[in-house]
Amino acid sequence: MQAVRSILVVLDPEHAHSRALTRAKLIAGVTGARLHLLMCDKKHDHSALLSLLSSQLHDDGYDNVTHEQKWQESLHESIIHVQQAEGCELVIKEHRPDNPLKKALLTPTDWKLLRQCPCAVLMVKSERPWTGGVILAAVDVGNQDEDHRRLHASIIDHGYAIAGLAKGNLHVVSAHPSPMLSASDPVYQLSETIEKKYREACSKFQAEFDISEDRLHVAEGPADVLIPHFEKQLDAVVTVIGTVARTGISGALIGNTAEVVLDSLEGDVLVLKSEEATAHLAEVARG
Predict the structure, then answer these.
(1) Which domain holds residue 171?
(2) Rounded distance, CA 117 to CA 38, Å?
(3) How far apart are the first and last CA of the chain?
(4) How many domains is the chain partitioned into structurally?
């Protein structure tokens, strides 16, 4: 979080009270980051409101505040266009779930934003203060390739940073697969051998990132079920989740887990991308 020098705050024209702005103020108050307020609306002029909000922020001690109103082809494209133009390292947006029928027929806007935005995205879902709360970081310790290792480091670093600024505690969750008799690797054919492999990986992970036993939660099952389960059990205020993308598959650049859990989680969700995905998406956005 300390590396975040510029935050894009997406404001909702239909909801005057902005949870996104509340979170942005908390982060900028600690990091000194610039706040760039964005209103995406092609019908109405919001310049007076944007000027008022900027003025209030300046009065509250936030010296570096800019604002604009923008509309491209769609909401997510408008946000990404401004994020690229302003060089923001973090986008903060309030998430309001789509109704199930609409979601079944159309890809939700926030899913598109998570898939295509080259930088970290914080989806704000709750008004609960972060102060003193549990921060949950979701990792897949079974994946030890270089992309995952760098992404895990980023997830844990961001988790510790949020825990630091919120004076909270970081917990880590990792799901491991159920046994598959058809698996080519015999390790994945039995629960005992899978758990042993993950426990060994966890020991290395704990040593590397200073995670104590009572703050590490490893269980069998799909990540999109276990992450919401542990969020509820620990009463976490923020969940940090990552995705590794393969260059060139622009339609499905994010693992389904982040999208699926977005509506299942009650607290805020910070989604990070691998370095490879970030570079590829920035290239797509510039093109």
Answers:
(1) 134-286
(2) 15
(3) 28
(4) 2
- Per-chain mean pLDDT for the chain: 86
pLDDT for residue 147: 81
Same domain, 155 and 245: yes
- Same-domain status, 80 and 140: no
Last residue of a domain, one of 62, 94, 126: 94
Contact 103, 79 (CB under 8 A): no
pTM of the model: 0.90
Pairing of strands 268-273, 120-124: antiparallel
Which pair of tokens denotes residue 215? Answer: 């703050």
Residue 185 belongs to a domain:
yes
The DSSP string of 196-226 is: HHHHHHHHHHHHHHT--GGGEEEEES-HHHH
**pLDDT band at residue 247 under the 50/70/90 scheme:** very low
What is the domain-level CATH number for residue 169?
3.40.50.12370
The whole-number pLDDT of residue 249 equals 43
Same domain, yes or no, for 144 and 272? Answer: yes
**Does position 189 have pLDDT exceeding 70, yes or no?**
no
Classify strands 216-220 and 169-176 as parallel, antiparallel or unpaired: parallel
In-domain check, residue 174: yes
- 3-state SS, residue 145: coil
Between CA 198 and CA 194 the distance in angstroms is 6
For residue 203, what pLDDT band results from cuts at 50, 70 and 90? Answer: confident
**143, 61: one domain:** no
Go through 7-19 and write b for each residue having 16 or more CB atoms within 10 A of its CB, e for each that does not.
bbbbbbeeeeebb
Backbone angles phi, psi at 109, to 5 degrees: -55, -45
Indicate if 89 and 148 belong to the same structural domain. no
